[in-house]
């Protein structure tokens, strides 16, 4: 595991041959929600020896409809993410959407996440790199794994080697995504840890209802294949009741299903 990840996971026990987990609700809906999810997931990961990064977006800037929920207020949500990380002794992450957000978010979180649609946005990548924080770049739905070398180069040229790349599927027609698992070894060839986003890769975007659909019943399939093809980490958005989630409920994993899934994935990793 990369040294910068070991530094982030200080205090968490883990097996070098395992994978790490980035998980949490899609967006900060309330203090009660983030605390509930972090407590449950951190307990599971501690018992299984899986390093865990808590994730919750402080704001959802990319929504289909103008009426969709976007957040409870940037500073309030960021403060809750930080509070959650401190309470459960977890590293934290959230996405940023514009270059001016990088320095602000860096005061609260450990890993700056670049949304897939913005992975080519040079000023955003440079601003994230200049904070000195770990930068997790989601591969665009319109980009191949080899082409992500240019995003990696932008971060490195800014003097930051703390980079993660995340696969989240490629656009297939207007309303679906497919995962090309060749992208995992292709992106690992850039010399960075690679994560598989097991939930967003199952989205069904551009629905005429204005609400993105999804296929959460296939999360296990996506995750198993990712572990088998060498992913260093898994990204899984999870919620106690996805049906009432304020963002991405159609593709999140029910929290009660996470432990059993992780146990299966550890068996696959051990078999390798």
Characterization of the model:
The longest helix has 18 residues, at 31-48. Helices cover 35% and strands 18% of the residues. An eight-stranded parallel β-barrel has the order 1-2-3-4-5-6-9-12, surrounded by six helices. The chain has a two-stranded antiparallel sheet with strand order 7-8. Strands 10-11 form a two-stranded antiparallel sheet. It has one domain: Alpha-Beta Barrel (TIM Barrel). The chain starts with a helix and ends with a helix. By secondary structure, it is of the alpha/beta class.
**CATH third-tier fold name:** TIM Barrel
Largest sheet: 8 strands, parallel, barrel
- Portion of residues in helices? 25-40%
Alpha-beta classification = alpha/beta
Q: How many beta-strand elements?
A: 13
How far apart lie the N and C ends?
17 Å
Order of helices and strands: HEHEHEHEHEHEEEHEEEHEEH
Query: How is the largest sheet built, in terms of strand order?
Result: 1-2-3-4-5-6-9-12
Which stretches of 5+ consecutive residues score pLDDT under 50? Answer: none
Number of helices: 9
Measured by DSSP, the beta-strand proportion falls in 15-25%
Radius of gyration: 17 Å
CATH architecture: Alpha-Beta Barrel
CATH class: Alpha Beta
Quote the average pLDDT. Answer: 92
Categorize the overall geometry.
Answer: globular
| Fourth-level CATH superfamily | Aldolase class I
> What is the total domain count?
1
Any key phrases for this structure?
alpha/beta, TIM Barrel, two-stranded antiparallel ribbon, 9 helices
Which secondary structure elements does this structure contain, and how are they paired or packed?
Blueprint lengths: L2 H6 L11 E5 L6 H18 L3 E4 L18 H15 L3 E4 L3 H8 L4 E4 L7 H9 L3 E5 L10 H9 L5 E5 L2 E2 L5 E2 L4 H6 L5 E4 L5 E2 L8 E2 L4 H10 L4 E7 L13 E2 L3 H14 L1
Parallel strand pairs: 1-2, 1-12, 2-3, 3-4, 4-5, 5-6, 6-9, 9-12, 12-13
Antiparallel strand pairs: 7-8, 10-11
């Amino acid at each position: 595991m990369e040294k910068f990840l070991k530094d982030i996971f200080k205090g968490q026990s883990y097996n070098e041959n395992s994978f790490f987990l980035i998980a949490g609700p899609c967006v900060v809906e309330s203090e009660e929600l983030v605390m509930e999810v972090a407590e449950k997931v951190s307990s599971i990961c501690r018992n299984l020896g899986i390093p865990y990064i808590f994730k919750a977006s402080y704001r959802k800037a990319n929504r289909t409809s103008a009426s969709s929920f976007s957040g409870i207020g940037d500073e309030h949500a960021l403060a809750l993410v930080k509070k959650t990380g401190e309470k459960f002794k977890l590293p934290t992450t959230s996405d940023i959407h514009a270059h001016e957000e990088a320095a602000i978010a860096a005061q609260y979180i450990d890993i700056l996440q670049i949304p897939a649609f913005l992975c080519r946005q040079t000023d955003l990548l440079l601003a994230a790199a200049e904070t000195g924080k770990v930068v997790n770049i989601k591969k665009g739905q319109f980009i191949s794994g080899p082409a992500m070398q240019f995003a990696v180069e932008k971060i490195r040229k800014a003097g930051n080697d703390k980079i993660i790349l995340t696969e989240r599927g490629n656009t297939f027609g207007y309303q679906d995504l497919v995962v090309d698992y060749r992208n995992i070894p292709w992106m690992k060839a850039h010399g960075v840890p690679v994560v598989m986003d097991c939930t967003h890769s199952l989205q069904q975007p551009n629905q005429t209802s204005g609400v993105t659909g999804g296929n959460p019943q296939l999360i296990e399939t996506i995750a198993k294949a990712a572990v088998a093809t060498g992913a260093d980490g898994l990204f899984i958005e999870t919620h106690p009741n996805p049906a009432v989630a304020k963002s991405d409920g159609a593709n999140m994993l029910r929290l009660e299903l996470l432990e059993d899934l992780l146990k299966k994935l550890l068996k696959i990793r051990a078999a390798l």
